[in-house]
From TrEMBL:
May play the central regulatory role in sporulation. It may be an element of the effector pathway responsible for the activation of sporulation genes in response to nutritional stress. Spo0A may act in concert with spo0H (a sigma factor) to control the expression of some genes that are critical to the sporulation process. Coiled coil: none annotated. PROSITE patterns: OMPR_PHOB, RESPONSE_REGULATORY. The modification 4-aspartylphosphate is found at residue 54. Gene3D superfamilies: 3.40.50.2300, 6.10.250.690, Winged helix-like DNA-binding domain superfamily/Winged helix DNA-binding domain. This is Stage 0 sporulation protein A homolog. GO terms for biological process: regulation of DNA-templated transcription. The keyword Secreted does not apply. Keywords: DNA-binding, Phosphoprotein, Transcription, Transcription regulation, Two-component regulatory system. Residues 4-118 form the Response regulatory domain. Residues 130-227 form the OmpR/PhoB-type domain. Residues 130-227 bind DNA.
């Protein structure tokens, strides 16, 4: 079954080009929204497999759209932005985006990133050696990619779960930031991307993120999951 991509951008020319390349050349099913409000109305977590989301949108901006979608779904989100400042990219990741492309971007690179993200998301849904791992008050189901702490659901983004999965299946092993960037992001991003996601993951799973119990720091080396 063809993957369904939701394109959210207010530039008709860009949308037309994206639609041609992704629908006609790659065979994806494409839905389009031209502003943030329309995107939230159209988005269906059971239907859409990936979202291309512009940062600067009418009515509701891309950051808020990303945040609202992420509160109900782990669907992969690639932010599209005409701004090149690092802070815009980091803010997009803070609100739950999985990747970003700065306009004008290379269409071949965008296609490659889409394929990589979709392939990874599909594999993660079907491959796991152990269904459930429990550490202290945390229970992680590797099959349905769910997390519970003290029997309460914790909503993680796709990349946050990827990190947690890597850590919890390698308890006690220290990963430096370069290795995490390679394993989780396939070198797409920079070292600050890792720090942003670690911080955001801790905010969701730690009772006190300033004094973490699960994801610990080996100063001067990297991060690891507790083996106690």
């Amino acid at each position: 079954m063809a993957k369904n991509i939701l394109i959210v951008d207010d530039e008709p020319t860009l949308v037309k080009g994206l639609r041609f390349n992704l629908e006609q050349q790659e065979g994806y099913v494409i839905d389009v929204a031209y502003d943030g409000e329309e995107a939230l109305n159209i988005f269906d977590p059971e239907k859409h497999d990936l979202i291309l989301l512009d940062l600067m949108l009418p009515k509701i901006d891309g950051m808020e759209v990303c945040q609202k979608i992420r509160s109900v779904s782990e669907v992969p989100i690639i932010m599209l932005t005409a701004k090149g400042e690092d802070m815009d990219k980091i803010m997009g990741l803070e609100f739950g985006a999985d990747d970003y492309m700065t306009k004008p971007f290379n269409m071949l690179e965008l296609k490659a990133r889409i394929k990589t993200i979709l392939r990874r998301a599909g594999a993660q849904k079907t491959v796991a050696d152990t269904q459930t791992i429990q550490v202290k008050d945390m229970k992680v189901n590797l099959i349905n990619r769910s997390v519970e702490i003290k029997d309460e659901d914790v909503n993680l983004t796709a990349k946050e779960f990827d990190l947690l999965n890597l850590f919890i299946t390698n308890r006690g092993k220290v990963f430096d930031r370069n290795t995490l960037l390679e394993l989780v992001w396939k070198h797409q991003g920079d070292l600050r991307t890792v720090d942003v996601h670690i911080r955001r993951l801790r905010e969701k799973i730690e009772q006190n993120p300033a004094k973490p119990e699960y994801i610990l720091t080996k100063w001067g080396v990297g991060y690891y999951f507790t083996n106690k």
